[in-house]
Amino acid sequence: MASASTLPGPAIQASKAALNAALAENEIKTSKNGDAPLEDGEIQEVDMQAQAENIRTVFNDAKNFNVKHPLYSPWTLWFDSPVTKGRNLPQTPMSSFPQTPLPQTPGGLAAQGWMEDIKRVISFDSVEEFWGLYNNIVAPSQLPQKANYYLFKEGIIPAWEDEANKNGGKWSIQLPKDKNRSNIDKMWLYTMLAAIGETCDPLLAEADQDQPSSLITGVIVSTRPQFYRLSIWTRTAPIGSGQADDDKLRERIEAIGRHFKMSVLGYNEGQKLAGPLATEVEFLSHKDSEKKGKQAKKIVV
Ligand code: MGP
């Protein structure tokens, strides 16, 4: 997999140190060996034990690791807040601002207005880079009002219009700020870990051949004046046709919602969450979100 990394700061320094260490080691081995090139058909003997001993993960050496743990797929973090609105932000150590161009797909073009203020922060494809990023960005509890982090699979923009989202929907929960200020950072961390660890879609293994990969396209945390919102976006949404395929999809979508509520956020099955400024964990298709709630068919777990 080609590296999607654009990490700055300590994470990139650690990666560079690891790379330099690996190159230096390789140079030493080559000069020690100094072997003649292999003849046709000759087999190179490999000292597997020596190779294994050279592997240093982040657990062995936090600065000079030379092996990273790849994720199932690369992810991109996007961000918007009142500060990014209508502005081309300067290059900073933590960002690849100004904005990178959107894909020239019909979805990319249709979403241009919506995406104007949403800035692409960074892409990553390993566990180590994820932690490098996480340790260097502002936590949701410290963000200004009306800000959003969007963590989406690389190549999918955080917009209804993207091909991967246009037939999908979102599970979301709204949490009053006063009661959740101390929980929201952990909840967002667990939501991101479930996404990048690909555990959000529990029925994936039983999925039909036409839906072989995870239904999750991205996760979002939003800060609003009086509440936080966490969302998980899916590629598809049941339409309530009563057909067997649609019923099966609804089961899979509901399993995502239950996993989100219980395993990620830590609530109990059947626990009532709605109240002033709070909602249940509920699902809405993007098409219904666009209609702004008119005839919306919510699923609640
Ligand atoms: P929001 O920010 O998801 O909802 O969408 P919220 O928090 O209830 O509203 P806010 O005003 O407090 O931010 C707000 C509005 O942004 C929607 O009603 C749409 O008009 C627009 N919008 C949201 N999303 C996710 C999209 C999108 O993907 N594409 C487009 N074109 N507009 C969107």
How would you describe this structure to a colleague?
This protein has 301 residues and is of the alpha+beta class. The protein folds into two domains: 4-54, no CATH class; 72-300, RNA Cap, Translation Initiation Factor Eif4e (2-Layer Sandwich). The chain is 31% helix and 19% strand. It is built from nine helices and eight strands. The protein is globular and about 75 Å long. The two termini are 37 Å apart. The model is unreliable at 25-32 and 91-97 (pLDDT under 50).
Derived from helix and strand composition plus strand pairing, the structural class reads alpha+beta
Task: Label the CATH architecture of the largest domain.
Answer: 2-Layer Sandwich
CATH topology-level name of the largest domain: RNA Cap, Translation Initiation Factor Eif4e
The gyration radius over C-alpha positions equals 22 Å
Q: Extract low-pLDDT stretches.
A: 25-32, 91-97
Euclidean distance between termini CA atoms: 37 Å
Helix content: 25-40%
Envelope shape? globular
Name the CATH superfamily classification of the largest domain: RNA Cap, Translation Initiation Factor Eif4e
Sketch the topology as an H/E string, one letter per element: HHEHHEHEEHHEEHEHE
Give the neighbour order of strands across the main sheet: 2-1-3-5-6-4-7-8
How much is the average pLDDT?
84
Number of helices: 9
Count of discrete domains? 2
Query: Could you tell me the strand content as a percent range?
Result: 15-25%
